[in-house]
């Protein structure tokens, strides 16, 4: 059985795995984005606090994914919980770092002008600073998503959802007739999903970032 015959015979299961893979990455990115932007907002005024936030999230990213999931299994069990926690933690660094950089990059003169017209701190943050910091934040989200697409495959180690199950099944049966097809199907599926997500982010950027800021 060649690769395309394998895909044709297993297309329903592959579509299900792809949907689950995309779903868990999307959900974790939403959570990581909310947490990361909040951390950036809280810490960007202080060099010390910003350094601590960046260092902490950097340290989380250095933990091997298998080790992270393995450590979470005794605490939260198998399946979706360790997958979601691990992916959310791994997704924080680019978002936190870019949120801090973006917020610090807002023109101080513009901030002073908003203060001069009596705009409150929360209003200034929501209407001026975050919109101007959105381009680097979106870049951080794109980077995180690409990372999590690959890391999510490791979730199969903990009976998690996604295309990693195809890869692990193929690796566990190396030498069998469809082992290589399984690994290729899972890997190519993840690459395809990563490209789809990135194209979606490009579209979001064009819709949400004014042309002058993009330039």
Automatic annotation (TrEMBL):
TM regions (residue ranges): 21-46, 66-93, 147-163, 183-204
Membrane topology: Multi-pass membrane protein
Listed Pfam families: BPD_transp_1
Localization: Cell membrane; Membrane
Assigned keywords, A-Z: Membrane, Transmembrane, Transmembrane helix, Transport
Domain ABC transmembrane type-1 residues, every copy: 18-201
InterPro entries registered for this protein in UniProt: ABC_transp_perm/SBD, MetI-like, MetI-like_sf
Gene3D superfamilies: MetI-like
Matches recorded under PANTHER family: GLYCINE BETAINE/L-PROLINE TRANSPORT SYSTEM PERMEASE PROTEIN PROW (PTHR30177), OSMOPROTECTANT IMPORT PERMEASE PROTEIN OSMW (PTHR30177:SF4)
Family per similarity comment: Belongs to the binding-protein-dependent transport system permease family.
Protein's name in the database: ABC transporter permease
Provenance organism: Streptomyces mirabilis
């Amino acid at each position: 059985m060649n690769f395309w015959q394998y895909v044709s015979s297993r297309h329903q299961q592959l579509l299900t795995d792809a949907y689950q893979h995309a779903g868990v990455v999307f959900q974790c990115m939403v959570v990581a984005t909310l947490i990361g932007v909040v951390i950036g907002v809280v810490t960007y005024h202080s060099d010390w606090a910003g350094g601590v936030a960046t260092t902490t999230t950097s340290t989380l990213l250095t933990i091997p994914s298998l080790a992270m999931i393995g450590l979470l299994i005794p605490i939260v069990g198998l399946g979706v919980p360790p997958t979601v926690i691990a992916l959310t933690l791994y997704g924080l660094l680019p978002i936190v770092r870019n949120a801090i950089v973006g917020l610090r990059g807002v023109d101080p003169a513009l901030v002073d002008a908003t203060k001069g017209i009596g705009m409150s701190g929360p209003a200034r943050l929501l209407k001026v600073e975050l919109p101007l910091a959105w381009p680097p934040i979106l870049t951080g989200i794109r980077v995180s998503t690409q990372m999590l697409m690959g890391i999510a495959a490791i979730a199969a180690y903990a009976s998690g959802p996604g295309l990693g199950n195809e890869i692990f099944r193929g690796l566990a049966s190396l030498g069998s007739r469809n082992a290589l097809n399984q690994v290729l199907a899972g890997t190519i599926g993840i690459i395809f999903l990563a490209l789809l997500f990135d194209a979606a982010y490009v579209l979001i950027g064009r819709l949400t970032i004014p042309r002058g800021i993009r330039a």
